[in-house]
Amino acid sequence: MNPNRHLMTIDEFTIYQSRQFSQSTGELSILLRDISLACKLINKQVNKAGLVDILGAHGAVNVQGEEQMKLDIFANEVLINVLRNSADCAGIASEENDDIIVFDDAHSLQSKYVVMFDPLDGSSNIDVNASIGTIFCIYKRVTPLGTPCTREDFLQKGNKTMAAGYVIYGSSTMMVYATQLGVNGFTLEPSIGEFCLSHKDIKCPVDGKIYSVNQGNTNKLDPKLQSYLAYCMENDKETKRPYSHRYIGSMVADLHRTIIKGGIFLYPADSSNASGKLRLLYECNPMSYIVEMAGGIGSTGSQPILDIMPTELHQRVPIFIGSKNMVEKALEMIS
Ligand code: AHM
């Protein structure tokens, strides 16, 4: 192996970025390193899913009334345990837990960050070997250091995000994370067990040709939304329609494609789900932060996702997200 390697690991990259700020304490870099460690452990288990008796419903039902798979529980526990041992995490909120978990040992009480995550998104895809992912975001707490963190630290607007990211367990495993400095992607190099910089300064194309939605829900949508979907399918040479339709049913996978190739992803409200299906804190906020840092848009249809003041840990919101021009067109048609 050439010792003058060109590979840059995620740790080297976060250290390089934090050196650009004289006030940086390196705590955010440590948290990102810990999350990447947890995701490597999850990845290992995801890769083995077909081999061991870990597939299938675990029988428990999560707070949204959905059946949990064993891998969801595993991923949740790994993230909680790694972050509990982290030097810089005051507490967590997870899509799989009713309430926040406070880390109240003497060291964690002094930590200034809290972390929210969806440990394994798109879990209905596990059985069929399609891509799934982990989504996370990091906030600076608002309660005083030295005290236990509270719900107030988690119920912050998305525009207060310090860093957000996802890991996609797909044909290769990749971690993408965003800070105010931009969005970068790291592919897991299995031979050294490190995420290495592979997609520098990711920008979401301003336009695209793919729309991503559960089209089976069309009859439950309001007429304006139905017209928008009809518009996506219409023949128009000038606007290069019809668009292609792609929908895996795994937000991380559908949005990863949207960010890289351009497009729009939507999960609107419908007659069965007045607020849509996806969760503000664990899915919509982190994904909107990443997409917006890459130059795209994340909206509920009537306001930017990142401007919502959350009132509940498990709040759901409708979402329209992706390439700037495509989302703007959708918003124009549904307003
Ligand atoms: P899950 O993690 O229980 O599978 O649910 C979350 C997923 C998102 O990843 C995805 O975008 C959406 O739910 C799919 O929902 P639907 O099957 O209603 O289209």
Please give the count of helices. 9
Bound molecules: 2,5-anhydro-1,6-di-O-phosphono-D-mannitol
User: What fold name goes in the CATH topology slot of the largest domain?
Assistant: Fructose-1,6-Bisphosphatase, Chain A, domain 1
CATH superfamily of the largest domain: Fructose-1,6-Bisphosphatase, subunit A, domain 1
Whole-number tally of structural domains: 2
CATH class wording of the largest domain: Alpha Beta
Sum up the overall morphology in one term.
globular
How many angstroms separate the termini? 57 Å
Helix percent reads 25-40%
Structural class: alpha+beta
The percentage of residues in β strands lies in: 15-25%
Main beta sheet: 8 strands, mixed
Counted beta strands: 15
The average pLDDT value, as a whole number, equals 92
Oligomer: single chain
Question: In CATH terms, what is the architecture of the largest domain?
Answer: 2-Layer Sandwich
> What spatial order of strands do you see in the largest sheet?
4-3-5-6-7-8-9-10
Order of helical and strand elements: HHEEHEEHEEHEEEEEHEHEHEEH
- pLDDT < 50 runs, ≥5 residues: none
The rounded Rg comes to 20 Å
